[in-house]
From TrEMBL:
Residues 212-289 form the Cation efflux protein cytoplasmic domain. This is Protein p34. It is found in: Cell membrane. Residues 15-208 form the Cation efflux protein transmembrane domain. GO terms for molecular function: cadmium ion transmembrane transporter activity; ferrous iron transmembrane transporter activity; zinc efflux antiporter activity. It is a multi-pass membrane protein. The gene is fieF.
Length: 301
């Protein structure tokens, strides 16, 4: 298993996520116990998912840190996309459980018990979640970890829905309108269903080797054009993401009489330029003689 500081940092962050999730879950369940609010129960159910996904994220990061082997020559980075898909499925299951509770409360509405104590406890849990979601999203981007970033985005969605729940529970406590409680729970379910769908969609894109965004691809093409002096053109540029690694491959057309050493120097120069711009880039260049030129693609400056 790789022992790089980056992977060690990711594992520490993922481990802390589990502890934070357990604390927040305990606080949110206490808030439900104090109030009997099905909306606060929905918030607690989502926190169960948060703990489960934090565990999955840790396992995914540990697996992704394994070095390439004979059976997996490209490494294990894509396991992080699988973990994000599992998170999305768990979110959907949680949403369905919340809808079930909301329907039961709609059929038998009741006034809230000790609403202000429960609101205070839930607000504390939401503040902890907000702080930690910010850490996860920043570290996920900085460390190029899809699993960590997905966990942070899901947690932030939980914070947004928690704020809505708190506002609604406060309104229900002030007005005594019992039906507002299950209505809020149903809204929470719809919100996290949407979050789960977006998470699964994004992760499936990574599993299917989706190309880089057009802005990044344009930048890479410009780098190739600016650093391929001595070549004629580059074509068939392909890109994809796999966890922390960005794969770039293309064909480079050079004059037929160019020496192997000179062609190799051009490739080295292009690779260094791309890696300076794209962290974690893995680059493959297929060198071709001038009779293979397509007179399209990237014209060398």
């Amino acid at each position: 298993m790789q022992s790089s500081p980056a992977f060690e940092r990711l594992q520490v962050i993922a481990t802390i996520s589990i502890a934070v999730g357990v604390v927040v879950l305990g606080l949110k369940y206490l808030a439900y116990h104090l109030t009997g609010s099905v909306a606060l129960l929905s918030d607690a159910i989502e926190s169960i998912v948060n703990v489960a996904t934090a565990v999955i994220t840790l396992l995914a990061i540990r697996w992704a840190s394994k070095p390439p082997d004979a059976d997996h020559p490209w490494g294990h980075n894509k396991v992080e996309y699988f973990s994000a898909v599992v998170e999305g499925v768990l979110i959907v299951i949680a949403a369905l459980a919340i809808l079930r509770e909301a329907y039961g409360a709609y059929q038998a509405p009741h006034l809230l018990e000790q609403p202000w104590q429960g609101i205070a406890v839930n607000a504390l849990a939401s503040a902890i979640n907000a702080a930690w979601a910010t850490v996860l999203m920043r570290q996920g981007r900085a460390q190029r970890s899809p699993a960590l970033a997905a966990d942070g985005r899901h947690l932030f969605t939980d914070v947004v829905s928690s704020v809505g729940v708190l506002a609604g529970v406060i309104l229900a406590a002030l007005t005594g309108w019992a039906l507002l409680d299950p209505a809020l729970a149903a809204l929470v379910a719809v919100n996290i269903l949407w979050s789960g769908w977006r998470l699964v969609k994004e992760s499936v894109g990574g599993l299917l080797d989706e190309a880089l965004p057009s802005e990044q691809l344009t930048r890479i093409r410009a780098i190739i054009a600016a650093n391929a002096e001595g070549a004629i053109e580059a074509h068939d540029v392909r890109t994809r993401h796999a966890g922390r690694t960005t794969f770039v491959d293309f064909h480079l057309v050079v004059p037929g009489d160019l020496s192997v050493t000179r062609a190799h120097d051009i490739c080295d120069r292009i690779e260094q330029a791309i890696k300076a711009e794209v962290a974690g880039a893995s680059i493959s260049i297929h060198v071709e003689p001038d009779d293979k030129a397509k007179h399209s693609g990237i014209v060398v400056l």
